[in-house]
Design goal:
Chain lengths: 590, 214
């Protein structure tokens, strides 16, 4: 048997497991409640996630409560832990997960479900809520996948629907009062807004009645922000601290779950952001700083933020990195002020104006051309374009339209630079109908259709020199679609698949579709039940949750999509989605 | 120029050479110092490190040199103390006019083997000759000495004729069936070859900083 210290010599990148990074808060020595945030993917992914940084900070600031972290150990480490009978531990104090009072799982992506079980297995914690008594930690789930928590609901005691910042404080207080009495804890959690307790809210014969209301932070300006973040010791995926401009989205893209899930729109004021960003730069010492939101170009105060920020940022020799901006929000000034060595990233999502109208991606060909021209004039040589295949009503023309865009961009580059050395990278993903969007009733295309569409686009793009094309895996896309709109029956499938060896499904080298096929067929469940079109009056697995946005609004948007009618963004006028019932929505801001 | 000698203990011994470079650069910036950047197409902060050691080996003799200006090296020591991750501690600093050539001059590394019992120490010292001959090197390149307490001092060549300490330990474990653990190894001295002499890097830095200011 080897000790934990000894197995560190045998694994790839042991620094993933050591903790001790700069920026750790002073860990309280005396506390009533201990908690651990668990991210079911590896350290490098988890430490790039803003949500867990926010929650980690908040929980550690609660009196009498400590919070540590745990990430999914890579498979080499997982095997060694099991072989040497070492239970999975937290990074900070190397305490076994099963010894904490509560574990907060962040569920970011459908393909991480098997990793939740991988972590529970390594920690020696039974998978199902009903199999765990008061001696085990309380398991709470949160994150974007809670838009439809049913596929993984059986594994958790409590699920936080929406934003966890304020809810987690209430959970900690409940735990302080009723520690050791799981039933009482669940009863108390069940009456907190935003908390779904499957064992209590799971009555037979669900209707469209809203049992749970999404949790929302009312005011971002006064909300706690991790402006003194932990700085990882190793290079992580997003190796820079990030400031969140606003939550929600001013655009109304009909496929986008985040846009509807994170409403109402709430923004941070430029002065608040300036303070956060400068503190982050000075505290972290990193070379780059990021700003983040669903559509940065739509932030109404971008101009004033940049004018108060840029001189200070330049003085500190730090690069300000912007995420992909919406085409229609580029201004020449903005392009000049961002880095030019990278590549320009657009997401037109569809190849023709007709289809862009259907999905309400309000970008025109002229927008694309104009932006490309400005970008090339300011020195860009490389363009990344993101598209979706399999969108509702898509035809061959829409796919060929993607190649047309690539050709036009090539031509524009030649006109601007008289050269042919432009790099165009096109990647496509398969459209997944997601809960809480106007397309939640739509059909997902079959694998056969996926293969055909990939073939067609590949053939077209091959003929254009300088274009690279990458596409998403058909099996992965199918599973995403199944889990996105899955129901409670899928927890059995997830468990079956894990026991047959599924883990790290979001990693190519570990994804094994045969396991999943077996797991579904063993449970007599057809993929198609989930990917097929739904009736507008069907009771959907997530129908019991009130997300703010009303079902009526989503239906109206779905019907408009069928006839290709667009809906403007929310910046100038409220479109009446209903999310402002949950809090002030900043539709007229700036 | 400031050169710092630092230790890499506890779990920080698992930080790689490359990661340490980023960590130190950031720590210097957090401490509020402005590092001079290299010239050229892709300017980067000037930072020189002592040669890398295998991942997982503790050390109390690591060095970095950075191009910053400070009035008093004491201020540097004080400020950077709070900006490094756990396990990395500054032991000493030197301020010099010229850039010390630590990596280029390094010729040997001294490792302590701790937590040994008397019989293992005896065993190794008895086998010294055959251990050294197992590496097919001139005998003067490898030294095994008894150190105070229950430990040994091993000196291995660094630079182009480098013998890795983890290789050395595994040979001892396999060929001589000794029970040794990498957790018990610590790099304690860096030797430099300077003017045909082998000297402790600390001595060289003392000499260089005196030359600069007297």
């Amino acid at each position: 048997m080897l000790s934990f210290d000894e197995i560190l010599y045998l694994v790839e990148k042991p620094a993933r497991y050591i903790g001790g990074e700069f920026g750790l808060p002073e860990m309280k020595e005396k506390y009533e409640i201990s908690s651990c945030i668990v991210f079911p993917d590896m350290y490098e992914i988890g430490m790039s996630n803003l949500g867990i940084k926010i929650l980690y900070n908040i929980i550690n600031s609660i009196e009498g409560v400590v919070c540590e972290r745990c990430f999914a150990p890579w498979t080499d480490m997982g095997i060694l832990l099991k072989e040497n009978l070492i239970p999975l531990m937290s990074l900070e104090s190397k305490k076994p997960l099963k010894d904490f009072d509560f574990l907060g799982f962040s569920i970011q992506y459908e393909l991480l479900f098997s990793n939740v079980l991988y972590i529970l297995d390594l920690a020696g914690i039974p998978f199902k809520s009903t199999e765990r008594d008061s001696s085990f930690p309380l398991l709470i789930a949160g994150g974007p996948c809670t838009a439809n928590p049913e596929p993984f609901a059986d594994f958790f005691d409590v699920i936080c629907i929406g934003e966890g910042e304020e809810v987690i404080v209430k959970v900690a207080e409940i735990l302080k009062k009723f520690k050791g009495n799981k039933n009482r804890i669940l009863e108390e959690c069940a009456i907190v807004e935003g908390l779904y307790v499957p064992s209590i809210h799971c009555e037979e014969g669900r209707t469209n009645k809203k049992l749970i209301h999404k949790a929302v932070v009312k005011d971002l300006n006064s909300a706690m922000y991790p402006s003194k973040p932990i700085v990882p010791n190793i290079t992580v995926v997003h190796d820079r601290p990030v400031a969140e401009l606003y939550r929600g989205c001013y655009s109304n893209c009909r496929f986008c779950q985040a846009s509807f899930f994170y409403r109402p729109i709430r923004k941070r004021d430029p002065e608040v952001l300036k303070k956060i960003i400068l503190e982050m730069i000075d505290y972290s010492g990193t070379e780059e700083i990021g700003i983040s939101s669903l559509s940065t170009g739509d932030y109404p105060c971008l101009g004033s933020l940049f004018s108060i920020l840029l001189p200070e940022v330049e003085k500190r020799k730090v690069k300000l990195q912007l995420p992909s901006l919406r085409l229609d929000s580029f201004s020449p000034e903005l392009i000049r002020n961002t880095r030019k060595t990278g590549s320009l990233t657009f997401a037109p999502e569809a190849g023709t104006q007709r289809l862009r109208n259907v999905i309400n991606k309000n970008i025109t060909d002229e927008d694309i051309d104009r932006t490309a021209k400005i970008a090339f004039q300011s020195g860009y040589k490389s363009v990344k374009l993101y598209f979706m295949l399999g969108l509702p009503s898509e035809t061959e023309d829409d796919i060929l339209g993607i190649a047309e865009i690539a050709k036009r961009i090539k031509r524009i580059y030649k006109e601007v630079t008289s050269k042919n050395d432009v790099n165009i990278n096109i990647s496509s993903s398969i459209f997944v109908p997601k809960p809480v969007t106007p397309f939640q009733w739509a059909r997902q295309i079959t694998q056969k259709e996926m293969i055909d569409k990939h073939f067609l686009l590949r053939k077209e793009l091959k003929m254009i020199k300088g274009v690279n094309y990458s596409w998403s895996d058909e099996n992965v896309s199918l599973l995403e679609g199944v889990f996105a709109r899955g129901d409670k029956r899928l927890s059995k499938v997830i468990e079956e698949a894990y026991l047959m060896g599924a883990k790290f499904d979001s990693w190519n080298e570990h994804f094994n579709f045969d396991i999943w096929k077996d797991a579904f067929s063993k449970n007599n469940i057809d993929f198609e039940e989930y990917t097929s079109e739904k009736g507008l009056d069907d009771i959907l697995p997530w129908s019991f949750i009130d997300f703010g946005v009303s079902d009526g609004y989503l239906k109206k948007e779905f019907q408009k999509s069928l006839v290709g009618v667009t809906t403007e963004g929310c910046r100038n006028e409220c479109k009446g989605c209903g999310a402002n019932r949950l809090g002030n929505c900043d539709t007229l801001g700036g | 120029m400031i050169t710092a000698k630092f230790s890499k203990i506890d779990y920080s011994r698992f930080l790689s050479h490359l990661d340490l470079q980023t960590i130190i650069n950031r720590a210097i910036k957090r401490a509020g110092f402005i590092i001079n950047y290299s010239q050229g197409f892709n300017p980067h902060p000037i930072l020189k490190m002592s040669p890398p050691i295998p991942l997982g080996i503790k050390s109390s003799a690591e060095y970095f040199t950075t191009d910053i200006f400070v009035q008093d090296k004491g201020i540097f020591e004080e400020k950077i103390r709070d900006t490094l991750p756990k396990g990395i501690k500054i032991i000493n600093t030197w301020q010099t006019e010229d850039q010390p050539k630590i990596a280029a001059l390094s010729s040997a590394i001294g490792y302590s083997l701790n937590n040994l019992n008397r019989s293992i120490i005896r065993n190794i010292l008895d086998e010294e000759e055959s251990i050294i001959s197992a590496f097919n090197r001139p005998p003067e390149e490898i030294k095994i000495m008894e150190d105070s307490g229950e430990r040994l001092l091993i000196i291995l060549p660094s630079g182009k004729n480098n013998i890795r300490i983890d290789t050395f330990i595994s040979v001892l474990k396999e060929k001589f069936e000794l029970s040794l653990k990498l957790t018990d190894v610590e790099k304690t001295i860096l030797f430099l070859s300077h003017s045909n002499e082998t000297i402790n890097a600390d001595k060289y830095l003392d000499f260089l900083s005196e030359k600069s200011f007297f």
